[in-house]
Amino acid sequence: MNKFLLIAVLLMAALRANGQNTAAIKGTLIDSLDKKPVEFATVAVIDMRDTLSTLIAYTLSNKEGAFALHNIPGGIPVKLLISYVAYQPYRKLFTLKTGEQFDLGTIGLNSKQLQEVTIKDERMPVVVRKDTIIFDAEAFKTRPNAVVEDLLKKLPGVEVDNDGNITVMAKKVSKVLVDGREFFPTDIRIATKNLDADLIDKVQVYDDRENDPNHLIPESQVGKIINLKFKKAIKKSIFGKVYAGAGTNDHYQVGGLANMFRDT
Predict the structure, then answer these.
(1) C-alpha span between 144 and 18 (Å, rounded)
(2) Cα distances (angstroms) measured from residue 118 to each of 88, 164, 187
(3) Which pLDDT score, from 0 to 100, does residue 20 have?
(4) Which helix (H) or strand (E) holds 254?
(5) Alpha carbon distance 202, 230 (integer Å)
C-alpha cells in the first residue's frame, strides 16, 4: 500500500513539475468593426528558434471567439499566428516565462479589403476549413531520408503505432490517398512506409463519408482519410527506391518501389 502511495505521489510531482516548465496562452477574437466573436479561426504557436518555424501547438476559436493553448515551452521565442478567411492574419512575437498564464485579452481582426496588395505570403503550419485539417509539411522537421510515416508522427493529434496503423484524434484512418487517388488500396501502409516525406507539400485530414453522403453515421463512428498532396515538381516525375541486406544463417532481404506520376 505504501509503495502504491509513493508511486502516486511521485507521479503527481512529475506532472506538476512538467506543468510548471510550460506556459499557457489565451484570448478572445472579435471582428474589429462589428465587435462580433470570430469562430473557427485557426490559432497557432510557432517555434522561432529555427528557420523552419516548427509548429508547437494549435487550436480553433469557439463560438464566443475564445481560445486557449497549453503546454507552451517557456523561455524560447515564439510567434502567435491567427488566420481566418476574409481576415488579415494576426501575428505577435514574444517569449513566455516558465509557468506564465499569458492573457492576450480581446483581439480585433481586420477584414481584408478588395484593393489589398499582398507583398509576402506567410505559410500557416495548420489550417482548418470546415471538417478538413491541412498541415503544411514544411513546418514539421523530419530526419534526412524520412518517409511519410515519420512525418505523420510529427503532426499534432496523429498517432502511428508499431504496426503502422494510423489514428487521428483517436479515430482510425481508413484510407491514405495521394493527390486524391488511392495508393495501393489493399494496404495503406505502402504509401506511408515507402514514400519520402520530402515529396509532400500538404497533408489533408478529413472525415471518411464517401459511403455516407447524408451524414447518417454518428461522427464518433466515422473514420478518417489522409490525403497526401505532392509538391508541384513531383507531379510529373519518375522516382523510386531499392534496398537489400544480408545476415547470418542465409537470411536476406531485398525489395524496391518505382513510381511514375503525371498531372492526370
Answers:
(1) 30
(2) 10, 42, 43
(3) 56
(4) strand 252-261
(5) 7
Question: In this structure, is residue 250 part of a structural domain?
Answer: no
> At residue 153, what are phi and psi to the nearest 5 degrees?
-65, -20
CB atoms within 10 A of CB 43: 26
- In sequence order, the 6+-apart residues with CB closer than 8 A to the CB of 79 are 45, 46, 48, 53, 91, 92, 93
Grouping H, G, I as helix, E, B as strand and the rest as coil, residue 26 is strand
pTM attached to this predicted model = 0.66
Q: What is the pLDDT of residues 208-241, one digit of tens each?
A: 988 887 888 887 788 899 999 988 877 666 767 7
Among 33, 23, 127, 106, smallest CA distance to 64 is for 106
116 and 204 housed in the same domain: no
State whether 113 and 140 are in the same domain: no
Residue 6's domain comprises 1-122
Tell me 96's DSSP state.
P
Give the ranges where the chain is alpha helix by DSSP (H): 2-20, 148-154, 189-194
**Chain mean position to CA 6:** 37
Q: What is the CATH number of the domain that holds 165?
A: 2.170.130.10
- CA nearest 106: which of 38, 27, 26? 27
With CA atoms as reference, report the closest residue to 164 among 134, 195, 201: 195
What does the alpha-carbon distance between residue 202 and residue 227 come to, in Å, rounded to a whole number? 8
* Pairing between β-strand 224-230 and β-strand 171-178 as defined by DSSP bridges: parallel
